[in-house]
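Aim 2, interim progress: modelling of the magnesium ion-bound target.
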Amino acid sequence: MPESRSATTPSRPLRLGVAGPVGTGKSTLIATLCRRLASQLEMAVVTNDIYTDEDARLLRAANVLPVERIVAVETGACPHTAIRDDVTPNLLAVEDLEDKFAPLDLVIVESGGDNLTATFSPALVDAQIFCIDVAGGGDVARKGGPGIERADLLVVNKTDLGPHVGVDPAQMVADAGSVRGGLPVVALSQRDEATVDELVNWVRQTLHTHQSGSLTPTDPGPMAPHSHSHDEHGHDHDHSHTHDHAH
Ligand SMILES: Nc1nc2c(ncn2[C@@H]2O[C@H](COP(=O)(O)OP(=O)(O)O)[C@@H](O)[C@H]2O)c(=O)[nH]1
Ligand SMILES: [Mg+2]
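Predicted structure of the complex, ligand included:
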């Protein structure tokens, strides 16, 4: 294990996780954050994919950060394992970037997001965004799960698509609010700059809280009880992805 600096040392950058199912817009959201913040903050990004570096390549192509500040961790296993159970490769990647480009203000970690219940361990990130989208269905927010209920910020993304997929984004946000007990929700669309402002403001505020030493990383909790990696006796199982969210 690498010797990790304390998760509460405020002198190091804020480590921000972005999780959520494939296609909900995580890489796009990260590119937008880089575009909006990289002129004021020193930033770097770590992406997680199982066998490819596609997310990293997408972000490099977006030309929002110097390419060497975007690194891919090829997990070789389910990304949900790499962001929660065995975070070592990710921690190494984050710490390497922090050393190479010191002093950084913000390191964003994207999870490969194979699963609706994958969340980051607080050993890896200080705060986390969970991202769902209206195209995934209006009932997703209401059904809950650890990320939806307890991530530091829930993004209900692609609200511009609402009319096209028969989903009312406002209702989805209201449903999310009711399972989150007051934790923040941002309705986001890349086509609506005001919603991007809201996202950017949340990140700035979270960074400020971190820098003042008063951010306490919280754990949204593990995956659903039928977790793929261990049964209740701690035995390893083959991974399968027949389940997509908590029961
Ligand atoms: N209509 C719409 N499409 C979006 C928005 N954000 C992202 N997308 C599209 O959603 C698709 C998946 O985005 P991506 O960021 O790769 O998702 P990821 O798999 O979660 O990283 C891409 O085609 C994006 O252009 C949005 O706000 N509105
Ligand atoms: Mg992506």
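Confidence is low (pLDDT under 50) at residues 1-9, 226-247. The longest strand covers residues 43-49.
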